[in-house]
Amino acid sequence: MAESNSQLLRVHTLKSVCSSCSVLELCLPIGLTCGEVERLDTLIAQRVKVKKGTVLYRTGDPLRSLYAVRLGFFKTSILSVDGREQVTGFQMQGEMLGLDAISNDHYACNAIALEDSEVCPLPFSLLEKLAHDLPSLQHNLNKLLSQEIVRDHDMLLLLGNMNADERLAAFILNLSQRLNMRGYSSKNFVLRMGRKAIGSYLGLRLETICRSIAHLRQEDLVDMRGRNVTILDLPGLKQKVTGCHRHTEQ
Amino acid sequence: MAESNSQLLRVHTLKSVCSSCSVLELCLPIGLTCGEVERLDTLIAQRVKVKKGTVLYRTGDPLRSLYAVRLGFFKTSILSVDGREQVTGFQMQGEMLGLDAISNDHYACNAIALEDSEVCPLPFSLLEKLAHDLPSLQHNLNKLLSQEIVRDHDMLLLLGNMNADERLAAFILNLSQRLNMRGYSSKNFVLRMGRKAIGSYLGLRLETICRSIAHLRQEDLVDMRGRNVTILDLPGLKQKVTGCHRHTEQ
DNA sequence: CGCACTGTTGATGTGCATCAAACAGCGTGG
DNA sequence: CCACGCTGTTTGATGCACATCAACAGTGCG
User: Cβ–Cβ of A81/B245 closer than 8 Å?
Assistant: First the structure.
């Protein structure tokens, strides 16, 4: 039995390596040579399945690994003392979980799978060592961290300056674009999170989310029934956001 | 003349090194050995003075250096296309500017000095090389980036869940604590930014800031006249924020 | 089939934005 | 020196966007 188990594990391990991973071009290995990706492979003992609703890590847990999302969908959130939840992000394949834990070796948020998912745990101490050997990996890690900061600043702009309809439009456009980058339809997709989570992310109540959905529908910009989203008028939707959207020169 | 000039520069250079810098224990060199700090010194060609109101860098400028604030006070902000401003942070001595530029080699915000200030430019490509030689420097850089993410997430919680009075209380407490860490009074300090900038940072209008100040004064929590702040009731002020404040286990 | 959960829509209230005016501080120039 | 304008701050009156409370519809699961 031990043997058959190790056989199974081996198969699993072989499948888990970065070099054969379909999200390689969106993940940590961007721009690494084949040889470098192979060394990155050695980090990943195995992929881990995370069932829908399962907590990947909790606030305060000691940092062991960063997690690359290989498949599925996560949300990260922080909790106030009196139980109010602030969703800090939604992560899909190729995106990294746990970056906030580097600050003090403990995760600073909760990460929950919104659907059956799969992650590649990257033991952080090993990752740091490997990054030392592979400067472009180190550079990628730096970039990843910095990108998260830029994203967060964009969220500050959203929360500080946009009204409910604009926030929702920006949210839908953001999802659309990220799905598109991954080869999925940018016009037609299904939400992995409920209205409450969207509301928490956008700093609104779930009822307000519903009403803003109704507004966008009345303007024939999107069709949303339940969790199914169809973008009817992409330029119109963008119009709704630009103006209050980030000014990025170059 | 060239000689006397280089003499002057030399003096300035000598004074600029990390090893003799008073904010060393709050800056990049935390935990570095003397030898390591000396190597970090080689990065810093000279300190740069930045006059009040001067732009240190703008959105879209190519990343050349990160900047350690040695003295003074900065604000960073992003601009929406139609000119609305979102302040993303206020930086004081020992804090780093430009971390968001690593994401794509261009600064993603504007940095402006709120008073006459002084920064240590850290040429980023050199910093990366040096970090490769000094693992603990690399680790510090990673931590710095991650800490910025955690701070930003706290701001999301603030903007998403707190009312005006709570936001202002949190803001004052945050300043008080950071000043305290630097050896200044935590009860008595002067604001370096105007009501408008505070409002932008906290997602509120300047009039609302004024009113919230009035509220906190009426409750005898703080005395604020103009830019002078006196904290009268620290526990009371904290009380105002806890409840909606971040739940951090351990 | 019934129950729980999620989403939708309506009625009402409130916290903050907006508009407006007065005031304080401060440097400039007459 | 004071008059002046400029900028930043304070306070009041009003309106509106979103929260809150409540009822109901749709969906999925045991």
Answer: yes
- Hey, is the C-beta of B161 within 8 angstroms of any chain A C-beta? yes
Range of the domain at B174: 162-249
Give the 3-state DSSP-derived string for chain B, with helices as H, strands as E and coil as C.
CHHHHHHHHHHHHHHHCHHHCCCHHHCCCCCCCHHHHHHHHCCCCCCEEECCCCEEECCCCECCEEEEEEECEEEEEEEECCCCEEEEEEEECCCEECHHHHHCCECCCEEEECCCEEEEEEEHHHHHHHHHHCHHHHHHHHHHHHHHHHHHHHHHHHHHHCCHHHHHHHHHHHHHHHHHHCCCCCCEEECCCCHHHHHHHHCCCHHHHHHHHHHHHHCCCEEEECCEEEECCHHHHHHHHCCCCECCCC
Distance, CA of B163 to C1' of D9, in Å: 21
**Position B11 pLDDT exceeds 90:** no
Query: Which CATH number characterizes residue B73's domain?
Result: 2.60.120.10
Residue-wise pLDDT for A52-94, tens only, equals: 999 999 999 999 999 999 999 999 999 998 888 999 999 999 9
Q: pLDDT tens digit string along B38-54? A: 999 989 888 999 999 99
CA distance B19 to A204: 48
pTM to 2 decimal places: 0.93
A137 lies in a domain? no
Does residue B213 reach within 7 angstroms of strand D, measured from its CB? yes
Assigned domain for B141 exists: no
Judging contacts by C-beta atoms under 8 Å, the chain B residues touching residue A104 are: 143, 147
Chain A residues touching B139 at Cβ < 8 A: 128
- Residue A203 Cβ < 7 Å to strand D: yes
